[in-house]
Amino acid sequence: MAYAVKEMFYTLQGEGRNAGRAAVFCRFSGCNLWNGRQADRGRAVCTFCDTEFVGVDGAGGGGFGSAGELAAAVAATWPAGGSGTPLVVLTGGEPLLQVDAALIAALHEQGFEIAVETNGTIAPPPGLDWICVSPKAGAQLAVTAGDELKLVFPQHGAGPSRYETLAFTHFLLQPMDGPERERNTEAAVAYCLAHPRWQLSLQIHKILCIP
Ligand SMILES: C[S@@+](CC[C@H](N)C(=O)[O-])C[C@H]1O[C@@H](n2cnc3c(N)ncnc32)[C@H](O)[C@@H]1O
Ligand SMILES: Nc1nc2[nH]cc(C(=O)O)c2c(=O)[nH]1
Ligand code: SF4
Ligand SMILES: [Mg+2]
């Protein structure tokens, strides 16, 4: 199987329970909830995306002809001689349009722990080490268990109470970035204070101005 990757980079995980941990980010091209064109954003299922994921033209991106080739590129992006278990975060776009058993096996072979950031509309293949689901209002949720449920807040028609009985270990609220970011952050803080099952997830990479 071939894989289309928008970009690949080494940085700190900026979101969720693993915020602050070093990881290779592998951003797959394409998404099933938006075609990535600004002109079509208003008509998309997911309207608030903060990411460019069209094409394979970013740094470290490209077409990879096999799982082994992509896993080797991920390994080459991890610093030589680094201590600790290497971590790769598969994101996008929607990574589960492309991630398959062969890629999971090849990344494990390279010694990586594998985390995925998904919108939860596509069932993941077995073997992933960390599953982060971020549900979107208007999209049918197919993944109802995992390590963390990270809800962008607020979303009309996707209130937190709808998700908190699902089989996730951690529940996080992430303020929606955009023109209302400050107001959304205040609302997320207030929600977490009133509902302690939910924990705040700030996008620390944006605060730090790192990728
Ligand atoms: C760009 S998405 C890619 C992975 C997958 N398609 C998804 O939606 O989970 C990565 C993370 O960024 C979050 N995100 C996207 N746009 C955001 C925004 N404007 N504010 C806060 N988080 C956002 C998503 O909900 C998801 O948790
Ligand atoms: N530093 C950093 N952390 C992230 N966590 C999730 C991201 C994503 O776009 O999926 C992301 C990202 O783009 N950068
Ligand atoms: S589902 Fe994820 S990648 Fe797709 S448009 Fe929404 S936030 Fe962006
Ligand atoms: Mg991002």
UniProtKB/TrEMBL annotation:
Enzyme category, top tier: lyase
Cofactor: Mg(2+); S-adenosyl-L-methionine; [4Fe-4S] cluster
Entry keyword Metal-binding: yes
Ligand binding (substrate): 12-14, 27, 91, 211
Residues binding [4Fe-4S] cluster, per UniProt: 31, 46, 49
Keywords: 4Fe-4S, Iron, Iron-sulfur, Lyase, Magnesium, Metal-binding, Queuosine biosynthesis, S-adenosyl-L-methionine
Binding site for Mg(2+): 51
SUPFAM superfamilies, per database record: Radical SAM enzymes (SSF102114)
Domain Radical SAM core residue range list: 18-211
Listed GO biological process terms: tRNA queuosine(34) biosynthetic process
Entry keyword Iron-sulfur: yes
Catalytic activity, as annotated: 6-carboxy-5,6,7,8-tetrahydropterin + H(+) = 7-carboxy-7-carbaguanine + NH4(+)
Pathway membership, UniProt: Purine metabolism; 7-cyano-7-deazaguanine biosynthesis
One example GO MF annotation: S-adenosyl-L-methionine binding
Cofactor binding annotation: Binds 1 S-adenosyl-L-methionine per subunit.
Enzyme Commission number(s) of this protein: 4.3.99.3
Gene3D superfamilies, sorted: Aldolase class I
Positions of S-adenosyl-L-methionine binding: 48-50, 93, 134-136, 174-177
HAMAP family on file: QueE
Assembly and interaction partners: Homodimer.
Protein family per UniProt: Belongs to the radical SAM superfamily. 7-carboxy-7-deazaguanine synthase family.
Purpose: Catalyzes the complex heterocyclic radical-mediated conversion of 6-carboxy-5,6,7,8-tetrahydropterin (CPH4) to 7-carboxy-7-deazaguanine (CDG), a step common to the biosynthetic pathways of all 7-deazapurine-containing compounds.
Protein name: 7-carboxy-7-deazaguanine synthase
Annotated organism of origin: Blastochloris viridis (Rhodopseudomonas viridis)
Gene: queE
